[in-house]
Amino acid sequence: MNRTQRLLRAAAAAILVAAMTLVAGTPYAGAVTPKNNSMLFYRNIGTPTGYRATLANGTYLSKGPSSFSSGWSQVAIDRDSVIFYNTTTGLGVTGTYINGVFTQMHTYHFSTGWTYVVAGCNTIFFFNVRTQTAAIGTLVGGTFSQTGSSSGWTNVQMVAASCDSLLVYNYTGGGTLTMPMNDGVLGSGTLYHLSAKWTSIVATDDSVIFYNTGTGVGAWGRLIAGQFTQTGSSTGFSKGLGVSATATSLFFYTGPAGTAGIATLKSGVYQYVRSLSGFATNWAIIVGGK
Fold this sequence. Notes:
By secondary structure, this protein is mainly beta. Helices cover 0% and strands 52% of the residues. Strand 22 and strand 23 form a beta hairpin. The chain is globular, with a radius of gyration of 17 Å. The model is unreliable at 1-30 (pLDDT under 50).
């Protein structure tokens, strides 16, 4: 593995500082519940506005179209639920989402401006890149309950989450902080100095992949109990891909062509499976569960 292929760098990167109160991590409750391999496709323009599917262990199964309301800017799916969020209005809708079946339950009025809304197994983390503020809560059985909020984060530009871990990343310098995350609570963090300028960071149940859309370079590893361990990398990915994940699998979407590549990423082990075609060319959001 040469210097350009390595994810971990010896050089110092920008340091991230989190001001949210941290406590000792606990084993995540989702560990004993079935993994959620549901997928959801969403767009503001076109019919249908949504499509449901599952992607389990590299096997894609269509569940059919759905008509979702317009205006959603972020969607996140945890082990049994989904949250839709509009960053302009603060409107949020939650419901259960298991095996590609959605049941709407609640409407919420959140703060506006959240840049990221990411899901662990039972926790939702909101982050505003402009203000460097965050909020956190649980989402179980389609019901959200806020557990905390914070300010004073520094240099965070990207956010991702596995089932039981949160990862915040500085795109410019590569500084990365990982923390256990369960039951709406963050544990003590670990700082890493990673390569800068990853354009996509997406996590499965227990692993995470970093990808650069301009170069086609990718790297991956385990993300468990707030700790990251790199297990592989490649310079052979296609360029210009959108990357999303379910609990066990990765979905590499090429919008203009309406095609996708399917892979598995489990326990830090990456395995390409197959390509698929026939997808709409303008899906704006593609997300999967934990």
